Amino acid sequence: MLEVKNVTKYYGKFKAVDNLSFEVKPGEIFGLLGVNGAGKTTTFRMIMGLLDITKGEITLDGKPIDYSVTDKIGFLTEERSLLTKMTVKEQCIFYGRLKGMDENTIIKRMRSYLKKFNVSEYEDKKIKELSKGNQQKIQFITAIINEPKLLILDEPFSGLDPFNVEMFKNEIIELSKKGSIIIFSSHRMEHVELFCKKLVIILKGKTVLNGYLKDIKEEYKKKDIFIKGDVTKDELMSVKGVVDVIERADELEVIIESNDNVKDVFDVIKKKKNITKFEVQEPSLNEIFVTKVGEEFDK
């Protein structure tokens, strides 16, 4: 298990991370989220032992992370970290050797992943000759080639189309099933919702939201109801608890204060004819993120 306990990091007098705590168990995919400059990269570097901690501690299976365990860690950075004049094969061997792997194992795993990601023909191509999306595939392969116990993914879907996002997603889930501890970071909240059950949102290095996504959505009272049929905006705006009604192309989006108001809206539309849709939706993580971060900025 990865444990981050009351971690604080100063750069001089600047506090980059402020008393941050969370834990991630084997097989869990954990979301570490925040706006630019929130302290995510600093946190990643402390977890990997690249930066000293000012206060607190970070442990993997109860032990501090040092060079004795770095071979068990994989890290996909947001920025490209590939050596563009190397071939794909040379790049994989380079990273694999850094993780203490023998060349035969590296090549075997590399070819398996290249086949899985439909890029086998690029084994002897130089990195600079590949498209942005295919470079991201190679960067992902180098991050997981050592079958890491702890995997940190920072914007892993950058430059990928929806088909390749799905391939990455399936591989990340497969790694979690094998017991990898996975920390996932992205500005695309819909990507986080694909598989993160637990998350923490930080702002200016400090936690503003922490817990299971399901519980966070339950606690966030605002709900949306989507309605198609013979009912007007004015009729819905008169209902108790309705905050706003947004007219979409062929439906109305009714924003209510809480789940308690769903029945009030339903009592109005059940008397109508030709209602073809009445769908209550939970708030998206993107909506919660924007609201929560906005509240903190307003303080």
What can you tell me about this protein's structure?
The structure is a single chain. The chain has 299 residues and is of the alpha/beta class. It folds into 2 domains: 2-217, 3-Layer(aba) Sandwich (Rossmann fold), CATH 3.40.50; 221-282, YebC, transcriptional regulation domain (Alpha-Beta Plaits, 2-Layer Sandwich). Helix content is 34%, strand content 28%. It is built from 10 helices and 14 strands. The protein has helices spanning 40-47, 88-98, 103-116, 132-144, 162-177, 189-195, 213-219, 233-237, 262-269, 285-298; strands at 2-11, 14-24, 29-34, 55-60, 63-64, 73-76, 150-154, 181-185, 198-203, 206-212, 223-228, 242-247, 252-256, 277-281. The strands form 3 sheets. It has a 6-stranded mixed beta sheet with strand order 6-7-8-3-9-10. A 4-stranded antiparallel beta sheet has the order 2-1-4-5, with helices on one face. A 4-stranded antiparallel beta sheet has the order 12-13-11-14. It is globular and about 70 Å long. 30% of the residues are buried. The mean pLDDT is 90.
